Amino acid sequence: MIKYARTPGIFPPPHNGDNPQLHTPGRRQPARIAFERITVDQDVMAGMPCIRGLRIPVATVLAMVADGITVDEVVAELPDLVADDVAESLRYAAQAMRERELPLRHSA
To answer: 7: how many CB neighbours lie within 10 A of its CB?
Structure first.
C-alpha cells in the first residue's frame, strides 16, 4: 500500500506539551503541504520517502542537489525523473525541517 507524504503520520504534528491553547478546537492549525510525487511504501526502499513509487529515494535527489548538481544533471543521471520531481523533493525536505527539531552545534 503506497502512502503519500500528505498522509497523516508521515509528518506527525509537533509535540506541544500540555499547553491547552495549542489544542483548542477551532484554533487555526499550520497548513499542510500536499506532495503528489513523494510516496512512502514499506515494500519499496524499506519505507523511505521515494519519488513516485520508484526506487529513487528523496534523500538521493537531495544529496545530488546539495553536491551542486543542477536539476538538468539530476534528470540526466536519473532518467525516470523530471524537473518537477526534483523541485518537489526540495519542498518535501523544507517541510520536514519545519516539522522537526534537529540538534545543531552552537558556534563558538
So the answer is: 14
pTM above threshold 0.85: no
Copy the grid coordinates of residue 60.
538521493
**Residue of 47, 48, 58 whose CA lies nearest to 85:** 58
Cβ-based burial of 18 (10 A; exposed 0-12, middle 13-18, buried ≥19): exposed
The CATH code of the domain that includes 60 is: 1.10.10.10
- pLDDT tens, 9-45? 444 444 444 444 444 455 454 555 689 999 999 999 9
What contacts 83, CB < 8 A, 6 or more positions away? 71, 72, 75
**Structural domain total, the chain:** 1
The answer as to whether 89 is a domain residue is: yes
